[in-house]
Specification:
The protein has one helix at residues 11-23; strands spanning 28-33, 36-41, 46-51, 59-64, 74-76, 81-84, 100-101, 106-112, 115-120, 125-130, 137-138, 143-147. By secondary structure, it is mainly β. It folds into two domains: 11-64, no CATH class; 74-147, Beta Barrel (OB fold (Dihydrolipoamide Acetyltransferase, E2P)), CATH 2.40.50.100. The protein has a four-stranded antiparallel beta sheet, covered by helices on one side. The longest helix is centred in the N-terminal third of the chain and has 13 residues, at 11-23.
Length: 148
């Protein structure tokens, strides 16, 4: 009887994809080669899922938790909508990572029901991480930025 090859994904491959996600400041990244598919995303929780064609067609899941939902340094989305990091196409972003921000300063715009809603900072400090990309859909309570 022929020995069936078992396919797997190791933690090193998942970590490499997460590192690429961080390096390129992406919120989502997918990779597929043959019958192995890996997707990683960041937000409230970053999750890497691998689907493999194994004898029982099982799904293996590896989670990398980055939980910001209770972090007081995080600005969260007050509504569901689409994020715009600049006032209009081609314009400079409202803020960038590394910028200092004041309370009341506009950080981004969320379009909801065809209405543009400027989102102002409720914190003062340095923007250390922007969790969203321009024109990304966001959910209520989703982390937008980390201020330290």
């Amino acid at each position: 009887m022929a020995n069936k090859e078992t396919k797997f994904i190791d933690k090193k491959s998942i970590k490499e994809l997460v590192d690429i996600l961080d390096e390129l400041e992406l919120t989502k990244l997918s990779y597929k080669k043959g019958d192995v598919s890996i997707s990683v995303s960041k937000g409230i929780t970053a999750t890497a899922v691998t689907s493999m064609d194994i004898q029982d067609n099982s799904l293996s899941e590896a989670k990398i938790d980055v939980d910001y939902k209770n972090d007081p340094r995080v600005i969260k989305s007050p509504m569901v909508g689409t994020v715009y990091l600049q006032p209009e196409p081609g314009a400079n972003k409202f803020i960038n990572e590394g910028d200092s921000i004041s309370i009341g300063q506009t950080m981004l715009i969320i379009e909801a029901m065809k209405t543009m809603n400027p989102i102002e900072s409720s914190l003062q400090g340095k923007v250390t991480k922007i969790f969203v990309q321009n024109e990304e859909a966001v959910e209520f309570g989703q982390p937008l930025m980390l201020i330290e």
